[in-house]
Specification:
The chain is an alpha/beta fold. 57% of the residues lie in helices and 9% in strands. It is built from 16 helices and seven strands. Strands 2-3-4-1-5 form a five-stranded parallel beta sheet, sandwiched between helices. The protein has a two-stranded parallel sheet with strand order 6-7. Helix 4 (90-102) links the parallel strand 3 (78-83) and strand 4. The radius of gyration is 21 Å and the shape is globular.
């Protein structure tokens, strides 16, 4: 069956897991948090083994069958975490997913997450998931829905705010839920036990160094290497953690790769991605003229190496490598000496 995010969360809290779940949509923060909730519930119920499958364009779909048939040496329950960025498994992938759903193994849950979704993505594979499990389409919030979402999230963090302060924050983040989430987390630390008003919110914004990851990504995609590197230096000097900010850079690189794969259908692809605000489309058009699909694939691979380096494997200066990646994003034609082949 198909359901809403709120109903999905209620179902998770209430009982056993279904054999299959599909969580898909362009609102990446909501997709990520819904997937995190499912992973957490699976752990509570004893699904102690998780196998991650990244279904990119060259994915071998036999791996899904292998994962569903393999027996765990450490746990009797298993979660298969399949990432399908485009939301389009293709003919072979669709058949593999249908096969899984028609003979779902016991004590195994398949979770598919996708960073894109529309009626055009639906097919036999998604219908098969709905027959035995749950599909959760995650639609972007409408502008008029944003203040309500911000108010609810503030309350969940123990933060009280006036309606005027909520409206001001909604206006500031311009539809970017990840930016809103990070701002709320910061405000909850600074204003716990008080009621946040417009004056306090404006003071908090004024104290912000403005070196944030969203401006970093936009500066790099827009070709302003100097500004992007200056922001990296500011983030590092402020003691920011590298791994969380790298997550947003990864999202933007995956978006660039999807757009680069659209070929002559770029206008339709941009509309489908619902880039907000619309003025950011110009940044992506500029980047796509400068770098081809192969370039964005190399940038993604470099981001993966930086993530591993930040976690201690292999050794190296992850911040220095981030600088190289940012420069490569801003100047694709000069990327040969910046990215590892």
């Amino acid at each position: 069956m198909a359901t809403t995010l709120s109903m999905f969360r209620k179902q998770l809290a209430g009982g056993e897991l279904k054999p299959a779940y599909l969580i898909a949509g362009a609102e990446h923060l909501l997709v990520l948090e819904a997937a995190d909730a499912l992973r957490a519930r699976a752990r509570e119920l004893g699904y102690l083994e998780r196998e991650v499958l990244d279904a990119d364009a060259n994915y071998d779909w036999n791996q899904l069958g292998d994962a569903s048939r393999s027996m765990s040496l450490f746990a009797s329950h298993k979660l298969i975490d399949l990432r399908l960025p485009t939301g389009k498994p293709g003919k072979e992938g669709s058949a593999a997913i249908v096969e899984f759903c028609e003979a779902a193994p016991p004590d195994t849950v398949l979770m598919i997450t996708a960073n894109d979704w529309s009626k055009k993505h639906e097919g036999a594979w998604s219908a098969a998931i709905e027959r035995i499990g749950v599909a959760v389409p995650v639609w972007p919030l409408k502008i008029e829905e944003l203040p309500g979402w911000i108010g609810t999230r503030m309350a969940s963090r123990g933060l009280k705010a006036t309606p005027e302060a909520v409206a001001l924050l909604a206006d500031r983040v311009e539809g970017n839920l990840l930016a809103a989430s990070q701002e709320i987390d910061k405000l909850a630390l600074l204003h716990a036990g008080t009621t946040l008003d417009v004056e306090a919110l404006e003071a908090s914004v004024a104290d912000d160094a403005r070196y944030d990851v969203f401006r970093l990504a936009d500066a790099a995609i827009g070709g302003d290497a100097g500004r992007a590197l200056h922001i990296v230096a500011g983030l590092r000097a402020e003691g920011e953690e590298l791994i969380p900010l790298l997550g947003w850079v990864l999202m933007q690189l995956r978006l660039l790769l999807r757009l680069a794969s659209a070929g002559t259908n770029l206008d339709a692809a941009l509309r489908s991605e619902r880039i907000w605000p619309a003025s950011r489309e110009a940044l992506f058009r500029r980047a796509l003229k400068s770098g081809d699909r192969a370039h964005w694939e190399r940038c993604l691979a470099q981001a993966g190496r930086i993530d591993a380096m930040a976690k201690g494997r292999p050794p190296g200066d992850a911040w220095r490598e981030l600088e190289r990646l940012v420069a490569a994003i801003a100047s694709p034609r000069r990327a040969a000496g910046l990215l590892v082949s």
